[in-house]
Amino acid sequence: MVKEYLDFAEFEDTVKTFTRECKIKGKPLPKTGSNSAKDSKALIIQDLLMSFTDGDQDVFFELWEEHIPSSAREQEAVGQKLEFYLHIHFSIYLLKHAVGKPDKAALDERIAYFKTYLETKGAALSQTTEFLPFYALPFVPNPMIHPSFKELFQDSWESDLKTRLEEFLSATLKANESPRLLTLYKENTQCSQETLQQLHQQLVESERKTMTYLKRFNKIQADYHNLIGVTAELVDSLEATVNGKMITPEDLQSVCLRLFSNQMKQSVAHSIDFTRPGTASTMLRASLVPAKVQEIPLLPSLDYEKLKKDLIDGSDRLKAFLLQALRWRLTTSHPGEQRDTVLQAYINNDLLDCYSNGQRSFLMLIQSKCEVVRQYTARLINAFASLAEGRLYLSQNPRLLRMLEGRLKAEDKYSLTRENVLGALQKLSLR
């Protein structure tokens, strides 16, 4: 695997040293298919170059489309331009290399093939100044004497094109033969990123639970300290009673007020007569009965993949409805577990694309041409910013702040979008 990568990266001296040391240490290298792959690549390049030189258009483009990835041919600028010039080369080949007058039928066939290319794949370059004159080539009766195409019929033009073709083939075919070590690295990197994202989500959830438990602990600790104080007072009162000093109703009222001050409003506690026999003990026993917790149903789950697709590709009307529904789902949910669940689902499914760096993301909606879509997007972001976990999630995207600032400057002074953007920015400054 190591040798395969070194061969791929063309570390020739390193490969020799590595092979020699493996033999010295008695660790023979397993035979790999790298040599056969190299031979295969060399044969493909040789066949393509031979077809280029011989002007064999059909064979060349058959091999070209079979072995050169469509992404390299149709999406990369170098591949697009090279393919355009190759079509020119084959369309005028008979004019340059035919002995005597070229066969009219064969020439017409090549010109027709070039026309078809110009109307289909070649149309992508029709706005490029470099190629604009060549769109007239099929309609010129004798391009050999036309000043615009004089360069095409020089030997140097064909030679340069062949060199460019050879370099392109070597680079492209080499890029397709990714060694196993490199493949493992890429797969592991992708897996690590996914694992890191999952761990981050778990960390956020753990921090939320920790804060909840910390609040409970602080309350229990405060109640404990209060109880110790009340107990000390009761012990003092019992000692005083033993010594013949009676407990006054005011003392009992004071102790009971301290006991129940955390369980009811101060005004309500003061209105209860704790000196009446049985009142304090009854309330104490009642406080031990756990309160009935109202069961709040969890909301049904959503198809987030479809949601995100519709938010990007849907109509403005659909986007507005979805944005409003998503915001209402969050803001109208019951505070506590239900709201936490809704927010966590949004974050886990990366609803706002804060973990994504793609060009087409949810955050682009803040720049929509539709004012309603912009407003509802700002409202949803503002709703996220109202919650601590939401702010933490929004902070994962470094572009968000710049986009919100840009929107703030672009919006009218009194627009609802501007107010919500401003509100979100203010909340994002909180912890």
UniProtKB/TrEMBL annotation:
Any one Pfam family match given in the protein's UniProt record, by short name: CTLH_Armc9
The organism of origin for this protein: Crotalus adamanteus (Eastern diamondback rattlesnake)
ARMC9 CTLH-like domain location: 44-174
Protein name (record): LisH domain-containing protein ARMC9
UniProt cross-references to InterPro entries, sorted A to Z: ARMC9, ARMC9_CTLH-like_dom, ARMC9_LisH, LisH
Listed GO CC annotations: centriole; ciliary basal body; ciliary tip
A GO biological-process term: cilium assembly
Domain of life: Eukaryota
PROSITE patterns: LISH
